[in-house]
Specification:
Blueprint (H helix, E strand, L loop, with lengths): L4 H16 L5 H10 L6 H11 L2 E3 L2 E3 L13 H4 L2 E6 L4 E6 L4 H11 L6 E4 L3 E5 L3 H15 L2
Antiparallel strand pairs: 1-2, 3-4, 4-6, 5-6
């Protein structure tokens, strides 16, 4: 099932809120989301938490372990967030993602341990990937297109 833009933004907000501090109850999360202008109910938040793989442990919500980020190069879960891959010079590649998804996608790339990648820097919706030269950049771009189907 594909997410609509509003659901994706809401889920990104949930992830940001959970990364920013301890949330003990769904009612608390609903109130925080409403304060940010999201129109939510406890049942919609419950579905979002389940869809994100968020767990309730130690008296609060816990983001899913890194098993959500593929270590084996299988990027099906992350591919839906990648919008564009393009060159920026001879050794920097730019990956544009949906808002709030860049860090998760960059972590997936880092965990894949591709030999072409020297390092990544991510913001909210943009990832910069450094390669040693234009030859390794070309190989990386090919790999990114294949992995993310963009």
């Amino acid at each position: 099932m594909l997410m609509d833009h509003a659901q994706l933004e809401r889920r990104n907000a949930i992830l940001r809120i959970l990364r920013g501090g301890r949330v003990r109850k769904q009612e608390e999360l609903v109130a925080l989301l409403k304060r940010e202008g999201y129109s939510v109910t406890q049942s919609s938040v419950s579905r979002d938490l389940r869809g994100l793989g968020v767990l309730k442990a130690s008296g609060g919500y816990v983001l899913p372990a890194e098993e959500a980020i593929p270590a084996n190069g299988q990027f099906a879960r992350l591919a839906q967030f990648v919008r564009e891959v393009r060159r920026a010079g001879s050794s920097i590649t730019v990956v544009r993602t949906a808002t709030g998804a860049a860090q998760s996608v960059a972590l997936g790339i880092d965990k894949a341990d591709w030999p072409e990648v020297v390092g990544t820097i991510s913001g909210d919706d943009t990832i910069f990937i450094a390669t040693e030269n234009s030859h390794t950049q070309a190989a990386l771009i090919e790999r990114l297109h294949s992995a993310f189907r963009v």
